[in-house]
From TrEMBL, chains A, B:
The lineage of its organism: Bacteria, Pseudomonadati, Bacteroidota, Flavobacteriia, Flavobacteriales. Gene3D superfamilies: Medium-chain alcohol dehydrogenases, catalytic domain, NAD(P)-binding Rossmann-like Domain. InterPro entries: ADH-like_C, ADH_N_2, ER, GroES-like_sf, MDR_fam, NAD(P)-bd_dom_sf. PANTHER family: PROSTAGLANDIN REDUCTASE (PTHR43205), PROSTAGLANDIN REDUCTASE 1 (PTHR43205:SF7). Residues 15-329 form the Enoyl reductase (ER) domain. Keywords: Oxidoreductase. This is NADP-dependent oxidoreductase. One of its GO terms (molecular function) is oxidoreductase activity, acting on the CH-CH group of donors, NAD or NADP as acceptor.
Length: 331, 331
């Protein structure tokens, strides 16, 4: 029997374990061209909260009663496809099941000798691609500019900051604990950090950390932190809106400082970023990220939760900022 | 003696006549290379409200005790510059004086035989350039798309809508009276209009006027109207933030619906637009606008106030939406 996690009900506000349901199913028959794979690592990410809402978005909402799905690395345990052998590993967007029969469309082979398997969900996977492409495609960084990153100790944020340093930017990270901000400096090389939970006046703290103003803002959180950044942007600032985790659980429409006057005054830009819009650039960028990783110009932190049954709790913990870096479940 | 209007005090909230002061000064001596010019038309525009605040912006604030300045068309009445003859007309950013001695830097000659003098402040001047360049450079319009224009009966808005129609867009105009919305349809060819003052549910009204969603939003107003547009944007929508007249008089920091979740969901873009950033394109675009005007593909409305002494009141009336199209003072 195969363990599966179903999406039981749509959360109102903060998701809870009650929104998930464990079930079991029979193994399916393997047809020509297909693979039978066994889950190795499952990725839990903020964007999944969006798919739990019924609202129209860039990807369809999860269906109640069906399995959830996210990024997964899985081992091929049986193959009826010439391109894939038993014992090889693949990554792709797959349902939360311990084992399943899959078509090979949308799957990439991954090599456990080049990098640890979980890195294919993180720094050289969607996380790294998001960081690199968001920063380059919208941020258009120029050496010497100042970059502010919110959610800086998260999976994407910690990579954004490191790429910023590789490109010669002044990098300021905002995170939610002294332990996290210490790590941003010691491990990821951020120039300055702000613990938003212990800072009374964020607007002033950003001004102090960015004496030349903010040219690029990589926004993972939205809400009051992003409002405070607005007061410090420079002319022609670029704001990459990659996520708004601070408001994902809101039951009312979130409000905040009106951005329009800041945009007009500064000829500034805000643009929503979704990595899948840039799929054509994935191979080239993944190669660059892998090179930097090998050259030790990039490093990463991950929070690994053991056990398939802990996947829902891992998701909830990630939403509450209990992760450092990429949160993955080792099945 | 020359009449001058000084900036007497910074308005708090809505400006009043008390913020302006009339004075007189002696005529100055004309030096080599200079012109003596007599004001013909003075432009009053929303952006002047921004310069009345002390806050840092893309142009320095007006200085209290000094003359205000804005776009002006003036007649050369004496010349010590070979390039300009008595009786010719020039346009440029000039202090609010009935007569003055000026250097020729930043002045353009204008031809009263090609178009009425006031048009050089409007449809073939800064107004038309703003409409054309904002729509093209940020809006990147594609035939068949849907364009929403706020402040549609204003100087810039009415030109934006007409250019939208020339480019084959569906054009929806938002304005503040039935007289204005009627004019948008009959005179400027808008496809649909909304009177925001008599519409209870703006979000729904926009949805009905834009059955295929909103691809481009040319925003002159900010505030609740712009919030309502957000709920109707399409994937990859472009929002040109050209002005935020609805909040210019606010004494507190304006708030509204948080835009970030809408931008992420729709991979949408918001960008502040200031026409002076695109100065290199002015000659080419002005030529295009003049051609369209001659071909009667473009038309315009202006509200002409007579008398230099009425300039402050004309500005206040324009801020309150009492103008239709471009507001100018005939000196």
């Amino acid at each position: 029997m195969i363990d599966t996690i179903l999406f039981k009900s749509r959360p109102v506000g903060e998701p809870t374990l009650d929104n998930f349901e464990f079930t079991q199913e029979e193994t399916a028959e393997l047809k020509d061209g297909q693979l039978r794979v066994k889950a190795a690592y499952i990725s839990v990410d903020p964007y999944l909260r969006g798919r739990m809402s019924a609202a129209k978005s860039y990807i369809p909402p999860f269906e109640v009663g069906k399995p959830l799905l996210s990024g997964m690395v899985a081992e091929v345990i049986e193959s009826k496809n010439e391109g894939f052998k038993k014992g090889e590993f693949v990554s792709g967007m797959l349902p939360w099941k311990t084992e399943q029969v899959v078509a090979t469309e949308g799957l990439q082979k991954v090599d456990p000798n080049l990098a640890p398997l979980s890195a294919y969900l993180g720094i050289i996977g969607m996380t790294g691609l998001t960081a690199y492409l968001g920063l380059h495609e919208i941020g258009k960084p120029k050496e010497g500019e100042t970059l502010v990153v919110s959610g800086a100790a998260g999976a994407v944020g910690s990579v954004v900051g490191q790429i910023g340093k590789i490109l010669g930017l002044r990098v300021i990270g905002i995170a939610g604990s002294d332990e996290k901000t210490a790590m941003l400096k010691s491990k990821f090389g951020f120039d300055a950090t702000i613990n938003y939970k212990t800072t009374e006046n964020m607007q002033q703290a950003i001004a102090e950390a960015a004496p030349n103003g903010v040219d690029i803002y990589f926004d993972n959180v939205g809400g009051p932190i992003s409002d405070a950044v607005l007061f410090n942007i420079n002319r022609f600032a670029r704001m990459i809106i990659c996520g708004a985790i601070s408001v994902y659980n809101n039951t009312e429409i979130p409000t905040g400082v009106a951005v329009q006057p800041f945009l007009v005054k500064n000829s500034a830009l805000m643009q929503g970023f979704i990595v899948s819009n840039y799929a054509a650039k994935f191979p080239e960028v993944a190669k660059q990220l892998a090179n930097w990783l090998q050259q030790e110009k990039l490093t990463y932190t991950e929070t690994v939760v053991e056990g398939f049954k802990n996947t829902p709790q891992a998701f909830l913990d990630m939403m509450n900022g209990k992760n450092k870096g990429k949160m993955v479940v080792k099945v």
